[in-house]
Amino acid sequence: MFLQMMVIITSTNTIQTAVANDRILRRLEELSTISDDNDCLSRFYFTAAHQQASDLIHSWMEEAGLDVTKDTIGNIRGIYRSDRADAKHFVIGSHYDTVHDAGKYDGPLGILLGIEMAQRLKKYGIDLPFHLNCIAFADEEGSRFSTAYLGSSVIAGNFDHEWLSRKDDRGVSFQEVIEGNGGQVNSISDDQIPQEDWLGYFEVHIEQGPVLCKQDLPVCLVSGIAAQARVNVSWKGMAGHAGTSPMDIRNDALCAAAEFTLLIEDIGKKNKEQLVATVGKLNVSPNTSNVIPGMVTHSLDIRSPNGSFLSEMIELIQTKGKEIAQKRTIEFDWKLMQFNPAIDCDDQLQELLERSIKKGNISQVLKIPSGAGHDAVMISAVAPVSMLFVRCTEGISHNPLEYVESSDIKDALIVCNHFMDELISAHTI
Ligand SMILES: [Zn+2]
Fold first, then answer.
1. Is the CB of residue 229 less than 8 Å from the CB of residue 118?
2. pLDDT digit string (tens) for 55-70?
3. What is the Cα Rg of the chain in Å?
4. What is the domain-level CATH number for residue 44?
5. Most buried by CB count within 10 Å: which residue of 59, 76, 367, 422?
6. Domain co-membership, 219 together with 306
7. CA of 374 to the centre of ligand 1 (A)
């Protein structure tokens, strides 16, 4: 009864909600100024800006009354512990790394909402039936070492030690970065939450798409996350003089990569209901105006809500690449760096979240799949997961124009607080 009363009081306190909303907005601004680049927001894994952001998040979690630690990989974990001997862990998480020239909401919004959710409960001394964890994942985008979901992979116990040999654009290995910051790579796995100790996972993220704008809704449920693969492709031709080499005897690696890229676009367009495919990063060697490109390496990011269809398309694209290479007498190399199957959000957690959206007076309960990958993908291997999307203007993301209205953040916060109350009630006997 006491708990129920407290829950009703705390979830309807509009002054507290306004204060928390202002704090989130202030902190979003503060984090957005911490960048490795002077003229845009870029915060890659374990750079100076990344460390500075982690210290700040660490202090905010302490301010919220949480027991805070930083693990070897760089995740910041704040815990509000339950007194119960058999308590399991419920995690609210998102990431604090960014892509290059990023927006300020992708990642931090979920972290800051999580801190507020825990702070409200802590303030009222709510007796939790589970350990509540707020985790700021060190790296989700994989911008530095092409390791998507790096931080959450450690917490889920899925860290791949082969990643340690990967090098960044300057030739520094992942292992060197960890050891240079005083970490021991052998202890990375010690930071996981064992599968039997998980209760569940919740993540709030901007939608990064246009649906909520079109529907004029501030938030919605996420039904699941599309399957995703990342491939590193390389083309080895022959460098030569741009003025003296006749056009019909060249082995131009960039022309091969260009033909391949257009073919990928064509396959994507022909299967647009089920597939998106992107070549987003390209390195040309020697990258000189008067030399025929001898070597090209590039990324391929390919996604589908249907995992087996994605596998089929990957195979088809690889075959087409080999054909282009053969036709142009060029060497073709294909390395599948990552494959994540499609995941579904958990029915029971979804139900609690649906009730919370209704209690938050949102006019419609909408459920959509996510084409973007999130840390929930990694956690879904060991625990039931749930996600809430927040509207971002025109669906623009991975771009400095990324924007979320203050009133939408407030609506998200209200729904999140109701969700915590629902979760506590569901696990309180
Ligand atoms: Zn993100």
1. no
2. 999 999 999 999 999 9
3. 23
4. 3.40.630.10
5. 76
6. no
7. 6
